[in-house]
Amino acid sequence: MPEARVIPLRPDDDDPYVPPPTAPGWEEQLAGGLEFLRRRFTGEYDTDEFGFDPDLADHVLLPLLRPFFQKWFRVETRGLENVPAEGGALVVANHSGTLPVDALMTTVALHDEHPAHRRLRLLGADLVFELPFVGSMSRKMGTTLACNEDAERLLTGGELVGVFPEGFKGIGKSFRERYTLQRFGRGGFVSAALRTGAPIVPCAIVGAEEIYPMIGNARTAARLMGLPYFPITPTFPLLGPLGLVPLPSKWLIAFGEPIETASYGPAAAEDPMLVFNLTDQVRETIQSSLYQLLLQRKGVFG
């Protein structure tokens, strides 16, 4: 896969100078906050059929995530030009980090740094929606159940859909297996792309592996709590709640060239060999990109 190009940080000398936008003053921020509260109390906001609440996402949830994106993880994004500016597309990424922080940072990257400010509609496992508070906030953020029916409806509606095919196998793997992709399941995401003709955009994320280095798994505790794993890290549970603070690793997120699916036609989704081959192609592309990004990163915390 060709290396993703980095967007220049400064314009050419011949370009007219455009001053950066100034941050809103406290009066403007206060007015915006009061207007947001008014909308919440009066019900003047909309949610879609999946429970997505763009008003809450833009004014509460994304602002809470931005300090982590900008200051804590210092995320660099590459290859944003490979993500379509409009229409349905499927972003497929590697999964890691003990907690699914990588999905949240990818959401911020596409909303804040893509020229079209695209919203990433994540597909989540059943467990996500069974957790109190987490499930409802995930819905409001735009996440929906990881099933082909919902994925196809979103793609047909022109949405940018995010999927992490490794699932709990990815985020729950041990630290010694870092940056080694786990199995991608049966390729359900490929079937959804084929049925809708949506392009598949491979995405490689470096940095999430180090935020909670998982050195052990308390399986008995996991079974008692109904969890797929119970992580033991250098700081958790030893330091209690303080151990939940992620380590400030340096992140790189790269979006690869899209893999088109429209030419195959919807009937191709019923061809198991084609689905397998495309699934394997996406997995190998992401794995190769991970190796390239690891060579480019100067240090885990640098």
Précis, in short:
With 302 residues, this protein is of the alpha/beta class.
Describe the structure.
- With 302 residues, this protein is α/β, with parallel strands linked by helices.
- It has a domain at 74-211 and 246-296: Glycerol-3-phosphate (1)-acyltransferase (3-Layer(aba) Sandwich), CATH 3.40.1130.10.
- The chain has 10 helices and 9 strands.
- The chain has helices spanning 26-42, 54-72, 101-113, 126-130, 134-141, 148-156, 168-171, 188-196, 219-225, 272-296; strands at 76-78, 89-93, 120-124, 144-145, 160-163, 200-206, 216-217, 231-232, 252-255.
- The chain has a 7-stranded mixed β-sheet, sandwiched between helices.
- Helix 2 (54-72) crosses helix 3.
- The two termini are 26 Å apart.
- Mean pLDDT is 91; it is low at 1-16.
Layout: helices, strands, pairs:
Elements: H1 26-42, H2 54-72, E1 76-78, E2 89-93, H3 101-113, E3 120-124, H4 126-130, H5 134-141, E4 144-145, H6 148-156, E5 160-163, H7 168-171, H8 188-196, E6 200-206, E7 216-217, H9 219-225, E8 231-232, E9 252-255, H10 272-296
Parallel strand pairs: 1-9, 2-5, 2-6, 3-4, 3-5
Antiparallel strand pairs: 6-9, 7-8
